[in-house]
Design brief:
- This protein is an all-alpha fold.
- Helix content is 54%, strand content 2%.
- It is built from 27 helices and two strands.
- Strands 1-2 form a two-stranded antiparallel ribbon.
- The chain is elongated.
- The N and C termini lie far apart (84 Å).
Amino acid sequence: GSVRGMSDDDPPPPTLGAYTQPVSTTVRECQLLFDRGCVWAFSLHREEAVACFQRAAEADSACAMAHWGVAFANGPDYNWNESAGFFAAAAQHAGYPSFKVAADALERAAAALTDESPQRERDLVGALALLFEWPVTPTAAQRKVAYADAMQALAERPNYAADADVQALAADAVMSLAPWALYGADQAPTPVAVRAKAPLERGLAADPAHPYLCHLRVHLDEMGPRARFHWPSAEALRRTDATDAGHLLHMPSHLDIQVGDYSAAMQANREAISADLRQLARAPQRFSIYSGYVVHNMEFLAWAAMLAGNKGAALAAAGQIETFLDEARLASNPMLPAFFESYLATRPMVASLSAAGRSESRRPQEASVARSGARAVWALGGAPLAAPARGRAALPLAHPLPSFRPRPGLRREGRRSGGPGGAGGVRGSAHADGAGHAAEAQHDGRGALRPDRSCGARGGALLPRGPPRGELGRARRRRRKVRRDAVRRARRLPDASAPDVRRAARRAGPPRARRAAVRGGPRHLPQERLVARRAAALPRRGGARAAAEGGRGGAGRGGGGGRRRGARELRVRAGELGLGEATGA
Protein backbone atom coordinates (compact mmCIF):
# COMPACT_ATOMS: atom_id res chain seq x y z
CA GLY A 1 0.00 0.00 0.00
CA SER A 2 0.97 3.62 -0.26
CA VAL A 3 2.81 5.38 2.53
CA ARG A 4 1.98 8.86 3.77
CA GLY A 5 4.40 11.51 2.60
CA MET A 6 5.17 9.93 -0.76
CA SER A 7 4.54 12.09 -3.81
CA ASP A 8 3.67 10.97 -7.31
CA ASP A 9 7.24 11.73 -8.38
CA ASP A 10 8.74 9.28 -5.89
CA PRO A 11 9.93 5.93 -7.26
CA PRO A 12 7.60 2.98 -6.66
CA PRO A 13 8.10 1.19 -3.34
CA PRO A 14 10.24 -1.94 -3.30
CA THR A 15 8.68 -5.35 -3.66
CA LEU A 16 9.38 -7.01 -0.32
CA GLY A 17 6.77 -9.73 -0.33
CA ALA A 18 3.95 -10.65 2.01
CA TYR A 19 6.03 -10.92 5.20
CA THR A 20 4.41 -9.39 8.26
CA GLN A 21 5.06 -9.36 12.01
CA PRO A 22 2.01 -7.92 13.76
CA VAL A 23 2.86 -5.35 16.43
CA SER A 24 0.83 -3.16 18.78
CA THR A 25 -0.31 -0.32 16.57
CA THR A 26 -3.57 0.86 15.09
CA VAL A 27 -1.86 2.84 12.35
CA ARG A 28 -1.71 0.83 9.12
CA GLU A 29 1.20 2.90 7.82
CA CYS A 30 3.24 2.07 10.92
CA GLN A 31 2.65 -1.66 10.49
CA LEU A 32 3.57 -1.52 6.79
CA LEU A 33 6.81 0.36 7.44
CA PHE A 34 7.69 -1.93 10.33
CA ASP A 35 7.30 -4.99 8.09
CA ARG A 36 9.47 -3.39 5.40
CA GLY A 37 12.12 -2.58 7.98
CA CYS A 38 12.16 -6.20 9.11
CA VAL A 39 12.70 -7.51 5.58
CA TRP A 40 15.51 -5.03 4.97
CA ALA A 41 17.10 -6.05 8.28
CA PHE A 42 16.79 -9.73 7.35
CA SER A 43 18.48 -8.91 4.05
CA LEU A 44 21.23 -7.06 5.99
CA HIS A 45 20.46 -3.72 4.35
CA ARG A 46 20.46 -2.22 7.82
CA GLU A 47 20.67 1.43 6.68
CA GLU A 48 17.39 1.09 4.81
CA ALA A 49 15.90 -0.86 7.72
CA VAL A 50 16.72 1.98 10.15
CA ALA A 51 15.01 4.47 7.83
CA CYS A 52 11.86 2.32 7.65
CA PHE A 53 11.72 1.82 11.41
CA GLN A 54 12.21 5.55 12.03
CA ARG A 55 9.36 6.37 9.66
CA ALA A 56 7.20 3.77 11.41
CA ALA A 57 7.94 5.45 14.74
CA GLU A 58 7.02 8.81 13.23
CA ALA A 59 3.72 7.35 12.04
CA ASP A 60 2.95 6.01 15.55
CA SER A 61 5.25 7.15 18.33
CA ALA A 62 3.41 4.86 20.77
CA CYS A 63 4.53 1.74 18.90
CA ALA A 64 7.27 0.29 21.09
CA MET A 65 8.35 -2.21 18.41
CA ALA A 66 9.07 0.56 15.91
CA HIS A 67 11.62 2.01 18.34
CA TRP A 68 12.88 -1.52 19.04
CA GLY A 69 13.49 -1.90 15.29
CA VAL A 70 15.61 1.27 15.16
CA ALA A 71 17.84 -0.15 17.89
CA PHE A 72 17.99 -3.66 16.43
CA ALA A 73 19.05 -2.42 12.98
CA ASN A 74 21.87 -0.39 14.56
CA GLY A 75 23.34 -3.49 16.18
CA PRO A 76 25.97 -5.99 14.96
CA ASP A 77 25.12 -8.95 12.76
CA TYR A 78 26.75 -12.13 11.50
CA ASN A 79 28.71 -10.32 8.78
CA TRP A 80 29.57 -7.04 10.51
CA ASN A 81 30.94 -7.50 14.01
CA GLU A 82 33.94 -6.67 16.16
CA SER A 83 36.40 -8.46 13.85
CA ALA A 84 35.36 -6.10 11.04
CA GLY A 85 35.48 -2.97 13.21
CA PHE A 86 31.75 -2.65 13.88
CA PHE A 87 31.97 -1.35 17.45
CA ALA A 88 34.49 1.32 16.49
CA ALA A 89 32.15 2.48 13.72
CA ALA A 90 29.14 2.42 16.07
CA ALA A 91 30.80 4.80 18.54
CA GLN A 92 29.43 7.82 16.63
CA HIS A 93 26.60 10.02 17.93
CA ALA A 94 24.53 9.92 14.74
CA GLY A 95 24.37 8.20 11.37
CA TYR A 96 24.62 4.48 10.81
CA PRO A 97 25.62 2.51 12.79
CA SER A 98 25.30 4.40 16.07
CA PHE A 99 24.96 3.00 19.57
CA LYS A 100 23.79 6.43 20.67
CA VAL A 101 20.85 6.22 18.26
CA ALA A 102 20.14 2.66 19.43
CA ALA A 103 20.27 3.55 23.13
CA ASP A 104 17.92 6.51 22.64
CA ALA A 105 15.51 4.33 20.64
CA LEU A 106 15.43 1.71 23.41
CA GLU A 107 14.60 4.39 25.97
CA ARG A 108 11.65 5.47 23.82
CA ALA A 109 10.59 1.83 23.40
CA ALA A 110 10.62 1.27 27.16
CA ALA A 111 8.61 4.44 27.67
CA ALA A 112 6.04 3.30 25.10
CA LEU A 113 5.40 0.01 26.90
CA THR A 114 2.38 -0.04 29.15
CA ASP A 115 0.65 -2.55 31.38
CA GLU A 116 -1.51 -3.53 28.41
CA SER A 117 1.48 -4.12 26.10
CA PRO A 118 1.94 -7.76 25.00
CA GLN A 119 4.46 -9.76 27.01
CA ARG A 120 6.24 -10.65 23.77
CA GLU A 121 7.11 -7.00 23.12
CA ARG A 122 8.24 -6.54 26.71
CA ASP A 123 10.52 -9.55 26.42
CA LEU A 124 12.09 -8.44 23.12
CA VAL A 125 12.73 -4.88 24.31
CA GLY A 126 14.21 -6.12 27.58
CA ALA A 127 16.52 -8.59 25.88
CA LEU A 128 17.79 -6.07 23.31
CA ALA A 129 18.60 -3.56 26.04
CA LEU A 130 21.37 -5.93 27.17
CA LEU A 131 23.23 -5.44 23.87
CA PHE A 132 23.78 -1.69 23.82
CA GLU A 133 25.70 0.78 25.94
CA TRP A 134 26.52 4.42 25.60
CA PRO A 135 29.20 5.59 25.47
CA VAL A 136 30.86 2.65 23.78
CA THR A 137 33.65 1.06 25.82
CA PRO A 138 36.37 -1.44 24.79
CA THR A 139 34.29 -4.24 26.33
CA ALA A 140 31.15 -3.46 24.33
CA ALA A 141 31.48 -6.66 22.27
CA GLN A 142 31.14 -8.76 25.40
CA ARG A 143 27.55 -7.61 25.77
CA LYS A 144 26.65 -9.88 22.87
CA VAL A 145 26.94 -12.86 25.20
CA ALA A 146 24.28 -11.56 27.62
CA TYR A 147 21.97 -10.72 24.72
CA ALA A 148 22.42 -14.17 23.13
CA ASP A 149 21.73 -15.91 26.43
CA ALA A 150 18.56 -13.87 26.95
CA MET A 151 17.27 -14.54 23.43
CA GLN A 152 18.06 -18.23 23.69
CA ALA A 153 16.11 -18.42 26.94
CA LEU A 154 13.14 -16.71 25.29
CA ALA A 155 13.25 -19.05 22.29
CA GLU A 156 13.16 -22.08 24.55
CA ARG A 157 9.95 -21.02 26.25
CA PRO A 158 6.94 -23.12 25.15
CA ASN A 159 4.88 -20.05 24.24
CA TYR A 160 7.55 -18.98 21.70
CA ALA A 161 8.28 -22.41 20.23
CA ALA A 162 6.11 -21.66 17.17
CA ASP A 163 7.10 -17.97 16.92
CA ALA A 164 9.36 -17.94 13.87
CA ASP A 165 10.49 -14.35 14.45
CA VAL A 166 11.62 -14.98 18.03
CA GLN A 167 13.45 -18.12 16.90
CA ALA A 168 15.17 -16.17 14.11
CA LEU A 169 16.28 -13.42 16.49
CA ALA A 170 17.65 -16.03 18.90
CA ALA A 171 19.60 -17.78 16.13
CA ASP A 172 20.97 -14.43 14.94
CA ALA A 173 22.13 -13.51 18.45
CA VAL A 174 23.86 -16.86 18.99
CA MET A 175 25.54 -17.05 15.57
CA SER A 176 26.93 -13.54 16.03
CA LEU A 177 29.01 -14.86 18.93
CA ALA A 178 31.24 -16.76 16.48
CA PRO A 179 30.79 -15.24 13.01
CA TRP A 180 32.29 -17.41 10.26
CA ALA A 181 33.71 -19.76 12.88
CA LEU A 182 30.90 -22.28 13.33
CA TYR A 183 32.93 -25.36 12.35
CA GLY A 184 36.32 -26.75 13.21
CA ALA A 185 39.02 -27.85 10.80
CA ASP A 186 37.43 -31.31 10.69
CA GLN A 187 34.04 -29.73 9.80
CA ALA A 188 32.64 -30.66 13.21
CA PRO A 189 30.18 -28.05 14.51
CA THR A 190 31.35 -25.83 17.34
CA PRO A 191 29.25 -25.38 20.50
CA VAL A 192 27.94 -22.09 19.09
CA ALA A 193 26.76 -23.86 15.94
CA VAL A 194 24.99 -26.50 18.00
CA ARG A 195 23.28 -23.77 20.04
CA ALA A 196 22.20 -21.91 16.90
CA LYS A 197 20.80 -24.95 15.13
CA ALA A 198 18.08 -25.58 17.73
CA PRO A 199 16.17 -22.29 17.24
CA LEU A 200 16.66 -22.54 13.48
CA GLU A 201 15.02 -25.95 13.40
CA ARG A 202 12.15 -24.85 15.64
CA GLY A 203 11.56 -21.74 13.57
CA LEU A 204 11.71 -23.49 10.20
CA ALA A 205 9.25 -26.09 11.47
CA ALA A 206 6.83 -23.23 12.19
CA ASP A 207 7.56 -21.24 9.00
CA PRO A 208 9.73 -23.02 6.38
CA ALA A 209 9.91 -19.90 4.19
CA HIS A 210 10.77 -17.33 6.87
CA PRO A 211 13.34 -15.05 5.15
CA TYR A 212 15.70 -14.58 8.09
CA LEU A 213 15.56 -18.21 9.24
CA CYS A 214 16.38 -19.40 5.71
CA HIS A 215 19.14 -16.80 5.41
CA LEU A 216 20.75 -17.84 8.67
CA ARG A 217 20.37 -21.55 7.92
CA VAL A 218 22.39 -21.14 4.73
CA HIS A 219 25.10 -19.37 6.73
CA LEU A 220 25.05 -22.12 9.34
CA ASP A 221 25.46 -24.89 6.76
CA GLU A 222 27.78 -23.38 4.18
CA MET A 223 31.01 -24.11 6.03
CA GLY A 224 29.95 -27.57 7.16
CA PRO A 225 29.71 -30.90 5.34
CA ARG A 226 28.05 -30.60 1.94
CA ALA A 227 25.95 -33.69 2.58
CA ARG A 228 24.13 -31.76 5.34
CA PHE A 229 23.24 -28.64 3.37
CA HIS A 230 19.63 -27.65 4.06
CA TRP A 231 18.44 -27.14 0.50
CA PRO A 232 14.80 -26.32 1.37
CA SER A 233 16.02 -23.06 2.93
CA ALA A 234 18.07 -22.18 -0.15
CA GLU A 235 15.18 -22.96 -2.47
CA ALA A 236 12.78 -20.88 -0.33
CA LEU A 237 15.10 -17.89 -0.76
CA ARG A 238 15.37 -18.59 -4.47
CA ARG A 239 11.57 -18.45 -4.74
CA THR A 240 11.08 -15.55 -2.32
CA ASP A 241 8.46 -12.94 -3.12
CA ALA A 242 10.79 -10.23 -1.75
CA THR A 243 12.20 -9.72 -5.22
CA ASP A 244 13.87 -6.40 -4.34
CA ALA A 245 15.79 -7.78 -1.33
CA GLY A 246 18.99 -8.44 -3.22
CA HIS A 247 20.96 -10.16 -0.51
CA LEU A 248 18.21 -12.72 0.07
CA LEU A 249 18.24 -13.55 -3.65
CA HIS A 250 22.01 -13.95 -3.52
CA MET A 251 22.18 -16.33 -0.56
CA PRO A 252 21.39 -19.65 -2.36
CA SER A 253 24.58 -19.22 -4.38
CA HIS A 254 26.61 -19.80 -1.20
CA LEU A 255 25.56 -23.45 -1.46
CA ASP A 256 25.23 -23.67 -5.27
CA ILE A 257 28.87 -22.90 -5.92
CA GLN A 258 30.06 -25.55 -3.46
CA VAL A 259 28.29 -28.37 -5.29
CA GLY A 260 29.29 -27.24 -8.78
CA ASP A 261 25.93 -25.70 -9.73
CA TYR A 262 27.63 -22.69 -11.28
CA SER A 263 24.72 -21.87 -13.56
CA ALA A 264 22.36 -21.45 -10.59
CA ALA A 265 25.00 -19.42 -8.73
CA MET A 266 25.39 -17.08 -11.71
CA GLN A 267 21.63 -16.68 -12.08
CA ALA A 268 21.11 -15.96 -8.37
CA ASN A 269 23.75 -13.23 -8.38
CA ARG A 270 22.46 -11.66 -11.60
CA GLU A 271 19.02 -11.34 -9.99
CA ALA A 272 20.55 -10.00 -6.77
CA ILE A 273 22.59 -7.37 -8.63
CA SER A 274 19.52 -6.20 -10.55
CA ALA A 275 17.51 -5.91 -7.34
CA ASP A 276 20.27 -3.98 -5.56
CA LEU A 277 20.71 -1.54 -8.44
CA ARG A 278 16.97 -0.87 -8.43
CA GLN A 279 17.16 -0.04 -4.74
CA LEU A 280 20.21 2.13 -5.35
CA ALA A 281 18.14 4.19 -7.78
CA ARG A 282 15.41 4.60 -5.13
CA ALA A 283 17.61 5.57 -2.17
CA PRO A 284 21.24 6.30 -3.14
CA GLN A 285 21.79 8.25 0.09
CA ARG A 286 21.47 5.04 2.17
CA PHE A 287 23.85 2.81 0.29
CA SER A 288 27.31 3.32 1.73
CA ILE A 289 27.73 0.20 3.90
CA TYR A 290 25.41 -1.95 1.80
CA SER A 291 27.62 -1.23 -1.23
CA GLY A 292 29.82 -4.05 0.01
CA TYR A 293 27.02 -6.56 -0.51
CA VAL A 294 26.48 -5.35 -4.07
CA VAL A 295 30.17 -5.73 -4.91
CA HIS A 296 30.15 -9.11 -3.19
CA ASN A 297 27.39 -10.23 -5.58
CA MET A 298 29.36 -9.00 -8.57
CA GLU A 299 32.55 -10.74 -7.49
CA PHE A 300 30.58 -13.89 -6.70
CA LEU A 301 29.19 -13.81 -10.24
CA ALA A 302 32.72 -13.43 -11.61
CA TRP A 303 33.97 -16.49 -9.68
CA ALA A 304 30.98 -18.62 -10.61
CA ALA A 305 31.55 -17.71 -14.26
CA MET A 306 35.26 -18.50 -14.01
CA LEU A 307 34.55 -21.91 -12.48
CA ALA A 308 32.00 -22.55 -15.23
CA GLY A 309 34.57 -21.68 -17.91
CA ASN A 310 32.58 -18.61 -19.02
CA LYS A 311 35.23 -15.97 -19.50
CA GLY A 312 32.84 -13.49 -21.10
CA ALA A 313 30.49 -13.46 -18.11
CA ALA A 314 33.46 -13.20 -15.71
CA LEU A 315 34.86 -10.17 -17.54
CA ALA A 316 31.40 -8.59 -17.68
CA ALA A 317 31.08 -8.96 -13.90
CA ALA A 318 34.51 -7.40 -13.46
CA GLY A 319 33.33 -4.49 -15.59
CA GLN A 320 30.28 -4.08 -13.35
CA ILE A 321 32.55 -3.81 -10.32
CA GLU A 322 34.64 -1.12 -11.98
CA THR A 323 31.53 0.84 -12.99
CA PHE A 324 29.97 0.57 -9.54
CA LEU A 325 33.10 1.37 -7.51
CA ASP A 326 33.84 4.69 -9.15
CA GLU A 327 35.89 7.39 -7.46
CA ALA A 328 32.83 9.19 -6.13
CA ARG A 329 31.55 6.09 -4.36
CA LEU A 330 34.94 5.22 -2.86
CA ALA A 331 35.25 8.79 -1.55
CA SER A 332 31.71 8.88 -0.09
CA ASN A 333 32.73 7.07 3.11
CA PRO A 334 36.17 6.80 4.73
CA MET A 335 35.66 3.06 5.28
CA LEU A 336 34.96 2.17 1.63
CA PRO A 337 38.49 2.35 0.12
CA ALA A 338 39.90 0.07 2.81
CA PHE A 339 37.13 -2.50 2.41
CA PHE A 340 36.35 -2.40 -1.30
CA GLU A 341 39.46 -1.27 -3.19
CA SER A 342 40.75 -4.83 -3.47
CA TYR A 343 37.69 -5.80 -5.53
CA LEU A 344 39.11 -3.70 -8.35
CA ALA A 345 41.70 -6.42 -8.96
CA THR A 346 38.94 -8.68 -10.35
CA ARG A 347 39.61 -7.87 -14.02
CA PRO A 348 43.36 -8.56 -13.94
CA MET A 349 42.62 -11.67 -11.89
CA VAL A 350 40.14 -12.93 -14.50
CA ALA A 351 42.50 -12.00 -17.30
CA SER A 352 45.43 -13.76 -15.65
CA LEU A 353 43.42 -16.97 -15.36
CA SER A 354 42.24 -16.90 -18.97
CA ALA A 355 43.99 -18.00 -22.13
CA ALA A 356 43.85 -14.40 -23.38
CA GLY A 357 45.37 -13.05 -20.19
CA ARG A 358 48.14 -11.07 -21.84
CA SER A 359 45.87 -9.05 -24.10
CA GLU A 360 43.31 -8.38 -21.36
CA SER A 361 46.02 -7.33 -18.92
CA ARG A 362 47.21 -4.72 -21.42
CA ARG A 363 43.78 -3.05 -21.42
CA PRO A 364 44.20 0.68 -20.62
CA GLN A 365 43.47 1.36 -16.96
CA GLU A 366 42.63 4.58 -15.17
CA ALA A 367 45.55 6.09 -13.30
CA SER A 368 43.79 6.71 -9.99
CA VAL A 369 45.60 5.81 -6.80
CA ALA A 370 42.72 3.75 -5.43
CA ARG A 371 42.45 1.63 -8.56
CA SER A 372 46.13 1.18 -9.26
CA GLY A 373 46.85 -0.20 -5.79
CA ALA A 374 44.88 -3.41 -6.08
CA ARG A 375 45.92 -3.96 -9.69
CA ALA A 376 49.57 -3.47 -8.82
CA VAL A 377 49.32 -5.94 -5.95
CA TRP A 378 47.74 -8.52 -8.25
CA ALA A 379 50.23 -7.87 -11.03
CA LEU A 380 53.21 -8.30 -8.69
CA GLY A 381 51.94 -10.89 -6.24
CA GLY A 382 49.13 -12.63 -8.07
CA ALA A 383 50.77 -13.24 -11.41
CA PRO A 384 52.94 -16.12 -10.15
CA LEU A 385 49.82 -17.79 -8.76
CA ALA A 386 48.00 -17.53 -12.07
CA ALA A 387 50.98 -18.66 -14.15
CA PRO A 388 49.68 -22.24 -14.65
CA ALA A 389 46.91 -20.86 -16.86
CA ARG A 390 49.61 -19.46 -19.15
CA GLY A 391 51.92 -22.44 -19.09
CA ARG A 392 54.67 -21.01 -16.85
CA ALA A 393 56.19 -22.14 -13.59
CA ALA A 394 54.14 -21.21 -10.57
CA LEU A 395 54.17 -21.18 -6.82
CA PRO A 396 52.77 -24.31 -5.12
CA LEU A 397 49.10 -23.93 -4.21
CA ALA A 398 47.04 -25.84 -1.67
CA HIS A 399 43.94 -25.32 -3.85
CA PRO A 400 44.62 -24.89 -7.59
CA LEU A 401 43.23 -21.82 -9.28
CA PRO A 402 40.71 -22.43 -12.08
CA SER A 403 41.44 -21.86 -15.74
CA PHE A 404 39.05 -21.33 -18.61
CA ARG A 405 39.72 -24.75 -20.16
CA PRO A 406 36.74 -26.82 -19.01
CA ARG A 407 37.79 -29.92 -17.13
CA PRO A 408 37.00 -33.11 -19.05
CA GLY A 409 35.19 -36.07 -17.65
CA LEU A 410 31.72 -34.63 -16.98
CA ARG A 411 28.93 -36.86 -18.24
CA ARG A 412 26.09 -35.18 -20.09
CA GLU A 413 22.70 -36.76 -19.79
CA GLY A 414 21.22 -34.69 -22.59
CA ARG A 415 18.21 -33.70 -20.49
CA ARG A 416 17.22 -30.05 -20.26
CA SER A 417 16.27 -28.66 -16.91
CA GLY A 418 14.91 -25.24 -16.18
CA GLY A 419 16.14 -25.63 -12.61
CA PRO A 420 15.38 -23.38 -9.70
CA GLY A 421 14.97 -19.76 -10.54
CA GLY A 422 14.47 -20.56 -14.22
CA ALA A 423 18.17 -21.13 -14.91
CA GLY A 424 18.69 -23.23 -18.00
CA GLY A 425 21.44 -25.69 -18.67
CA VAL A 426 22.24 -29.30 -19.31
CA ARG A 427 22.03 -31.65 -16.37
CA GLY A 428 25.12 -33.72 -15.65
CA SER A 429 26.40 -35.95 -12.94
CA ALA A 430 29.66 -37.47 -11.84
CA HIS A 431 31.16 -39.69 -9.20
CA ALA A 432 32.78 -38.13 -6.16
CA ASP A 433 36.54 -38.08 -6.01
CA GLY A 434 38.54 -38.82 -2.90
CA ALA A 435 38.75 -35.23 -1.70
CA GLY A 436 35.10 -34.48 -2.38
CA HIS A 437 35.75 -31.13 -4.07
CA ALA A 438 33.50 -29.80 -6.81
CA ALA A 439 34.99 -29.71 -10.28
CA GLU A 440 34.60 -26.98 -12.85
CA ALA A 441 31.65 -27.50 -15.18
CA GLN A 442 31.73 -27.10 -18.93
CA HIS A 443 30.04 -23.99 -20.27
CA ASP A 444 27.57 -24.68 -23.06
CA GLY A 445 26.59 -21.12 -23.95
CA ARG A 446 23.62 -21.05 -21.57
CA GLY A 447 25.31 -21.84 -18.28
CA ALA A 448 27.25 -24.57 -16.59
CA LEU A 449 26.37 -28.20 -16.28
CA ARG A 450 23.91 -28.71 -13.45
CA PRO A 451 24.42 -31.32 -10.72
CA ASP A 452 22.34 -34.44 -10.58
CA ARG A 453 20.24 -34.04 -7.42
CA SER A 454 19.47 -37.74 -7.13
CA CYS A 455 22.51 -38.60 -5.01
CA GLY A 456 24.82 -37.11 -2.40
CA ALA A 457 24.73 -33.55 -1.15
CA ARG A 458 21.83 -31.90 -2.94
CA GLY A 459 22.14 -34.83 -5.31
CA GLY A 460 25.92 -34.74 -5.46
CA ALA A 461 28.50 -32.33 -6.78
CA LEU A 462 29.73 -32.08 -10.31
CA LEU A 463 32.88 -34.13 -9.92
CA PRO A 464 35.23 -35.57 -12.55
CA ARG A 465 34.56 -39.10 -13.77
CA GLY A 466 37.74 -39.35 -15.78
CA PRO A 467 41.31 -38.58 -14.74
CA PRO A 468 42.41 -34.96 -14.16
CA ARG A 469 43.84 -32.99 -17.04
CA GLY A 470 47.46 -33.82 -16.24
CA GLU A 471 46.64 -37.51 -15.89
CA LEU A 472 44.97 -37.48 -19.31
CA GLY A 473 48.11 -36.12 -20.96
CA ARG A 474 50.28 -38.77 -19.36
CA ALA A 475 47.78 -41.51 -20.25
CA ARG A 476 47.73 -40.45 -23.90
CA ARG A 477 51.50 -40.45 -24.14
CA ARG A 478 51.65 -43.86 -22.45
CA ARG A 479 49.10 -45.33 -24.88
CA ARG A 480 50.95 -43.97 -27.91
CA LYS A 481 54.19 -45.50 -26.69
CA VAL A 482 52.47 -48.87 -26.14
CA ARG A 483 51.12 -48.83 -29.69
CA ARG A 484 54.48 -47.85 -31.19
CA ASP A 485 56.24 -50.62 -29.27
CA ALA A 486 53.62 -53.18 -30.32
CA VAL A 487 53.97 -52.20 -33.98
CA ARG A 488 57.77 -52.44 -33.79
CA ARG A 489 57.62 -55.89 -32.21
CA ALA A 490 55.13 -57.11 -34.84
CA ARG A 491 57.33 -55.87 -37.68
CA ARG A 492 60.32 -57.72 -36.26
CA LEU A 493 58.50 -61.07 -36.43
CA PRO A 494 59.91 -63.27 -39.28
CA ASP A 495 56.54 -63.97 -40.90
CA ALA A 496 54.89 -60.62 -40.11
CA SER A 497 52.40 -59.28 -42.62
CA ALA A 498 50.54 -55.97 -42.87
CA PRO A 499 47.39 -57.43 -41.24
CA ASP A 500 49.52 -58.70 -38.35
CA VAL A 501 50.92 -55.21 -37.76
CA ARG A 502 47.47 -53.63 -37.85
CA ARG A 503 46.11 -56.21 -35.43
CA ALA A 504 49.00 -55.61 -33.01
CA ALA A 505 48.35 -51.87 -33.08
CA ARG A 506 44.65 -52.37 -32.44
CA ARG A 507 45.27 -54.77 -29.57
CA ALA A 508 47.72 -52.38 -27.91
CA GLY A 509 45.17 -49.58 -27.61
CA PRO A 510 42.52 -48.79 -30.20
CA PRO A 511 41.41 -45.19 -30.72
CA ARG A 512 37.93 -46.19 -29.53
CA ALA A 513 39.25 -46.89 -26.02
CA ARG A 514 41.19 -43.63 -26.04
CA ARG A 515 38.05 -41.63 -26.82
CA ALA A 516 36.15 -43.41 -24.05
CA ALA A 517 38.89 -42.53 -21.56
CA VAL A 518 38.78 -38.85 -22.53
CA ARG A 519 35.01 -38.69 -22.18
CA GLY A 520 35.00 -40.56 -18.89
CA GLY A 521 32.00 -42.63 -17.97
CA PRO A 522 31.54 -46.24 -16.97
CA ARG A 523 33.76 -47.55 -19.78
CA HIS A 524 36.78 -45.64 -18.51
CA LEU A 525 39.36 -47.90 -16.84
CA PRO A 526 42.97 -47.32 -15.87
CA GLN A 527 45.30 -48.13 -18.75
CA GLU A 528 46.76 -51.25 -17.12
CA ARG A 529 43.35 -52.84 -16.50
CA LEU A 530 42.11 -51.87 -19.96
CA VAL A 531 45.09 -53.43 -21.72
CA ALA A 532 45.05 -56.49 -19.49
CA ARG A 533 41.38 -57.11 -20.22
CA ARG A 534 41.88 -56.80 -23.96
CA ALA A 535 45.09 -58.84 -23.90
CA ALA A 536 43.31 -61.71 -22.16
CA ALA A 537 41.27 -62.26 -25.32
CA LEU A 538 44.24 -62.22 -27.72
CA PRO A 539 45.11 -65.97 -27.88
CA ARG A 540 41.55 -67.07 -28.58
CA ARG A 541 40.92 -64.48 -31.26
CA GLY A 542 44.35 -64.91 -32.85
CA GLY A 543 44.04 -68.71 -32.93
CA ALA A 544 40.57 -68.67 -34.47
CA ARG A 545 41.62 -66.28 -37.22
CA ALA A 546 44.82 -68.26 -37.94
CA ALA A 547 42.89 -71.54 -38.04
CA ALA A 548 40.50 -70.06 -40.57
CA GLU A 549 43.38 -68.86 -42.71
CA GLY A 550 45.04 -72.29 -42.43
CA GLY A 551 41.82 -73.99 -43.53
CA ARG A 552 41.95 -71.94 -46.70
CA GLY A 553 45.35 -73.34 -47.52
CA GLY A 554 47.63 -70.78 -45.97
CA ALA A 555 51.06 -72.44 -45.58
CA GLY A 556 52.58 -72.11 -42.12
CA ARG A 557 49.50 -70.31 -40.75
CA GLY A 558 47.86 -73.13 -38.78
CA GLY A 559 45.73 -72.57 -35.70
CA GLY A 560 48.49 -73.69 -33.36
CA GLY A 561 50.95 -71.13 -34.68
CA GLY A 562 48.46 -68.29 -34.32
CA ARG A 563 47.58 -69.38 -30.79
CA ARG A 564 51.25 -69.57 -29.80
CA ARG A 565 51.98 -66.15 -31.30
CA GLY A 566 49.01 -64.56 -29.46
CA ALA A 567 50.10 -66.12 -26.16
CA ARG A 568 53.64 -64.83 -26.67
CA GLU A 569 52.36 -61.29 -27.25
CA LEU A 570 50.22 -61.56 -24.13
CA ARG A 571 53.16 -62.61 -21.97
CA VAL A 572 55.33 -59.79 -23.31
CA ARG A 573 52.63 -57.19 -22.73
CA ALA A 574 51.75 -58.47 -19.24
CA GLY A 575 55.40 -58.47 -18.27
CA GLU A 576 55.77 -54.83 -19.35
CA LEU A 577 52.85 -53.86 -17.17
CA GLY A 578 54.02 -55.93 -14.19
CA LEU A 579 50.82 -57.96 -14.20
CA GLY A 580 52.41 -61.40 -14.35
CA GLU A 581 51.66 -64.19 -16.81
CA ALA A 582 48.57 -65.35 -14.94
CA THR A 583 46.52 -62.38 -16.24
CA GLY A 584 45.55 -64.02 -19.48
CA ALA A 585 45.84 -67.64 -18.44
